Amino acid sequence: MKKLLFSLCLLVLALCGFSGPAFGAYPDKPLSMVVTYPPGGATDFQARIVTTLASDEKFFGQPIVVINKPGAGGRVGWNWFAEKAPTDGYWLSTYNAPHFIAQSLVYKASRFSMESFEPVATWGADPAVLIVPKDSPFKTVKDLVDFAKANPGKVTVNGAGLYVGHHIAMLQLAKAAGIELTYVPEQGGTPALQSVMSGKVMAGFNNLADAFRNRENVNILAIADLQRHPYIEDVPTFIEEGIEVDNSSVNYRGIILPKGVDQETIDACEKALVAMFNTPKVKDLMAQSGSPLLVLNRQQTIELFAKVKKNLQELLKDIKQ
Questions:
Q1: Domain range for residue 77?
Q2: If you average pLDDT over every residue of the chain, what do you get?
Q3: How far is residue 64 CA from its own chain's centroid?
Q4: pTM of the model as a whole
Q5: Domain total for the chain?
Q6: CATH number at residue 299
Q7: What's the rounded Cα separation, in Å, for the pair 51 and 282?
């Protein structure tokens, strides 16, 4: 009888052991992280900063390998991630909001939506700024607006793609100032910045982080946020300039998993990421690069997505492609 009971106990323990992947075993190999923008841009270099400690046993104990899948303002990478990313917990992706949410609302053929992904954590909030070449005749926002009013459609303004935060900021500016601007979508923030610096376009909206790192080569005229930013305290908000452009275009960045990953793995990722984002090393590296840090957990990120979607549904209600 004792032998039978002992055998039954062993059987129960064995069955429990095979009920799913053990929490302590994840991860047991390197993780891959899709970045939906080109190397060198703000999303790419920030993603590398915030995951620099991934190999530390206090976090993942494994490295996170960046895989760039740029194109169409991030849509190429998010399409791939929604449709093809494995759901074993070893594939992460960066997210950019409002970018991916706006694209899912505007494009009828979009192959992803907000519900295609599992929000895990947020690491930053990067406002859009209006930039011009160093030798531009536009020294203030008023200069640009006055010229645009006298020359409808002649002012070219670029950004990292269609219906990314930069494009949204441009749409807000045109509507609030009553002007016609010509938007030039680029293949990411870095190409957009280079086009402004070279004078290929007359102006551009770009990330605060990218503009801050290249402030010797561009002039920053205004920031699309509710208050000035400590990194560029001398730059006014659009609202200060009398133009009602709010913070709807602020570029929130963080990490998502594909739909279908089990809750235990999501929780493990969230715990490691939030702890890693809050380390002094990550905070220092972000500050040194002019990258605004905002750490949110999974629930806060879910609430952020809902808020952004609600704002965009009103802002983009008459646009569908």
A1: 24-126+250-315
A2: 91
A3: 18
A4: 0.85
A5: 2
A6: 3.40.190.150
A7: 8
